[in-house]
């Protein structure tokens, strides 16, 4: 069995990994670290939760130690680009953790916070800079950072960068990098746009592919609850009453929806916070810190957080609304069952989302077990729980037609005789005259 000590990492890195309890490398770490130590370019196809941050951080730190030099002012030796603030912060923390005995200068910059501390950190020069593309370009435009001295660059979550519209900013950033450099691309999927970008920016790369995005985590138990949209909040509150839901992430499609769901949970007595792009950085950091510490038991998030939340001990993921992009489902449920643990993913699906569920099952090549909690109208127009039939997932349960039938006559009730022709309710003028 391969161990980290077999991979050629620096002794200080091995000490840091041991202090974190890391012993055996994951598949992507075992495959990526050796060629990266040789200075090769790399194209990694891997989703979050596979250990890819360690796969690129530890060899890059080792190479910095092998070729020591003092960072020059307003420059960085290694640049890591991340799509979101949360992911950038987590990558920065990982570099600090793995390099704790290496004495490196590491900084993270992103939007939503003041420029002052970031300018100060850049002015001293850095060994490693982790940044979001927009804020990085702001600093470059103001002359706070130059990239002509950067020897290695990492583009993490490249497909998510594409989804967020960062392709043009990325091209601007890469145009300022030296021609001779080590370049690493990591992406969960490989759409044509990312493949084209990788071909332009990588030189004879080693390709490492681990756990394709169509494969969900093996330790995640999945199920779908068929239910009307208007009853989802009630069902969510009922689910969270179960003590097994120790630490849960609830995903919505919209920012406003996340706020509404979080408010409903708080009103029901649950410790919940919402996190999305409209929240300030302080609000997002406070919510994540509360979630990690256990003060917040439920984090309600949009897909911007699907790849940026790396918290151990998440017992459940609930898809309050199914994602419009099937791959996002895999990323969402990957927030649980991390670090060897088990987890459960529960998805609500209403009538309008049935095609989204089909798309997810087609991508993942599986049929997700379902429970039918929809209410079916009976002959009197009353609503009763539908039977749980696997073959009635997308139709009207129990074969009941969607048309509401009129209520039957009660026993002894006489049928009302039809009005004679021309007889009916009085016209408006006649009714007013009678009232006078």
Automatic annotation (TrEMBL):
One Pfam family matching this protein: DEAD
Q: Where is this motif: Q motif?
A: 2-30
**Which InterPro entries did the record assign?**
DEAD/DEAH_box_helicase_dom, DEAD/DEAH_RhlB, DEAD_box_RNA_helicase, Helicase_ATP-bd, Helicase_C-like, P-loop_NTPase, RNA_helicase_DEAD_Q_motif
- UniProt keyword terms in alphabetical order: ATP-binding, Helicase, Hydrolase, Nucleotide-binding
Please give the superkingdom of this protein's source: Bacteria
Q: Name one GO molecular function term.
A: helicase activity
Region of interest (Disordered), ranges: 371-436
Identify the Gene3D superfamilies for this entry: P-loop containing nucleotide triphosphate hydrolases
Q: Where is the Helicase ATP-binding domain?
A: 33-208
Question: Domain Helicase C-terminal, which positions?
Answer: 232-379
Q: What residues does the DEAD-box RNA helicase Q domain cover?
A: 2-30
Q: Which CDD domains match?
A: DEADc, SF2_C_DEAD
Q: Which SMART domains match?
A: DEXDc (SM00487), HELICc (SM00490)
- Stretches with biased composition (Basic and acidic residues): 385-394
Family under the similarity heading: Belongs to the DEAD box helicase family.
- Mind telling me which PANTHER family this protein's record contains? ATP-DEPENDENT RNA HELICASE RHLE, ATP-DEPENDENT RNA HELICASE RHLE-RELATED
Q: What is this protein called?
A: DEAD/DEAH box helicase
